[in-house]
Amino acid sequence: MIDLYYWTTPNGHKISIFLEESGLSYQVRAVHIGKGEQFAADFLKIAPNNRIPAIVDHEPADGGEPLAVFESGAILEYLGDKSGQFLPRSLRARTEVLQWLHWQMGGLGPMAGQNHHFNRYAPEPVPYAIERYVKETARLYGVLNRQLEGRDYVAGDYSIADMAIYPWARGWEGQKQDLADFPNMAAWLERVAERPAVQRAYALVDQINPDPDALVSAQARKLLFGQGN
Prior knowledge:
The protein is α+β, with helices and mostly antiparallel strands. The protein is built from nine helices and four strands; from the N terminus they run E-H-E-H-E-E-H-H-H-H-H-H-H.
């Protein structure tokens, strides 16, 4: 059994998608980041960076005590190795998957995250920041679009790379992008969205957080971004 410490963010969705795809047994432990639950002492023992997602694996491969893992990329790699799914064993295929996983972790996630912040959460418009992150998001989507030329999935076969990228890429409209500029990415988004496990993962949103504006209140912004009242 795996405990998934989760909220309905792109990084949270990465892990729920993997768990639904793999069939590993898990239970969701909601961490409402708009209420500051990520700062609770018990959660910080699992995720010292006070961010979701995190997991606790109660049956690690070494047979020892329950094992906590934080950081979504590390969790995906851990679960891929644990399950033997969606992360190839062969050197070249594994390297292909991992480099696109890290592309998302180091590029698309941070840049699209700043795009989200300045377009939706910032207390006042900052035109330079908005333009900078909208353009960088477009550049990254151009990279992804080229990679998907002639491929169904990012690294060939469906993998943790797709699971990492998809939750961020599906937010293209809020990131002020035109999907017509990225036809290969558009087809890939549809392909991933049609997977039953992905649909089950996103169904968790209605169960866990039915209020899509839960993170835009003044109190939530203060907790998440250090903004004053």
